[in-house]
Design goal:
By secondary structure, chain A is mostly beta strands. Chain A has no helices and 11 strands. In chain A, strand 9 (about 85-90) and strand 10 form a beta hairpin. Chain B has strands at about 5, 10-15, 20-25, 30-40, 40-50, 55, 65-70, 75-80, 85-95, 100-105, 105-110. Classes of the chains: A mainly beta (about 110), B mainly beta (about 110). Chains A and B meet through strand 4, strand 5, strand 9 and strand 10 of A and strand 4, strand 5, strand 9 and strand 10 of B.
Chain lengths: ~110, ~110
């Protein structure tokens, strides 16, 4: 099955900084999503982005399907951005596979 | 539109007991999937259902089972609970298999 790797595993930044999170996947995908898990465990859907670029406020994401990676950009970080960011991919009708996540800590 | 609803939010059980978790998807969503999250193993896929049919199954023992009803609500059952079953169980729904997934708040199960 498809393999999903995220980097870095941990990221500590000061409020106001920008960050880039990366997701590499091992094969072609027809579904790729980015999620943010808050400290209470809730998984929030950030982007559905099997290809192309999308933006939502301070967050944007780009997936280059031919090179099998996706990037999540967070600009002007706020403490509320802290949490774990997951990338999840699906190939065909197979199960959705999650990466191990990037733990982001934004210090005031 | 109401989101994905999981009940109960918290559950404490004893080894050897069984447990049933419930998930009500977003109205109109026909696909429901379940995930187990533990600190050591991350997010592991359990099952996926679409229109009452199991479409995919993860690598979990037969003690883990699930089903989906005609109204798309889903339940998962774990029998003969073990300490290692302690985890956050997350349910997600989508319009169909490759549509964006939307997660519920999860059920945190503690087995003592």
């Amino acid at each position: 099955g498809i393999q999903v790797e995220q980097s870095p595993p941990d990221l500590i930044l000061q409020e106001g900084a920008n960050s880039t999170l990366r997701c590499n996947f091992s094969d072609s995908v027809n579904n790729l999503q980015w999620f943010h898990q808050n400290p209470w465990g809730q998984l929030i859907n950030l982007f559905y982005i099997p290809s192309g670029t999308k933006q939502n406020g301070r967050l944007s994401a780009t997936t280059v399907a031919t090179e099998r990676y996706s990037l999540l950009y967070i600009s002007s970080s706020q403490t509320t951005d802290s949490g774990v960011y997951f990338c999840a991919c699906r190939q065909g009708a197979q199960k959705l596979v999650f990466g191990q996540g990037t733990r982001l800590t934004i210090n005031p | 539109k109401a989101g994905v609803t999981q009940t109960p939010r918290y559950l404490i059980k004893t080894r050897g007991q069984q447990v049933t978790l419930s998930c009500s998807p977003i109205s109109g969503h026909r696909s429901v999937s379940w995930y187990q999250q533990t600190p050591g193993q991350g997010l592991q896929f359990l099952f996926e259902y679409f229109s009452e049919t199991q479409r995919n199954k993860g690598n979990f023992p037969g003690r883990f089972s699930g089903r989906q009803f005609s109204n798309s609500r889903s339940e998962m059952n774990v029998s003969t609970l073990e300490l290692g079953d302690s985890a956050l169980y997350l349910c997600a729904s989508s319009l169909e298999g490759n549509s964006p997934l939307h997660f519920g708040n999860g059920t945190r199960l503690t087995v003592t």
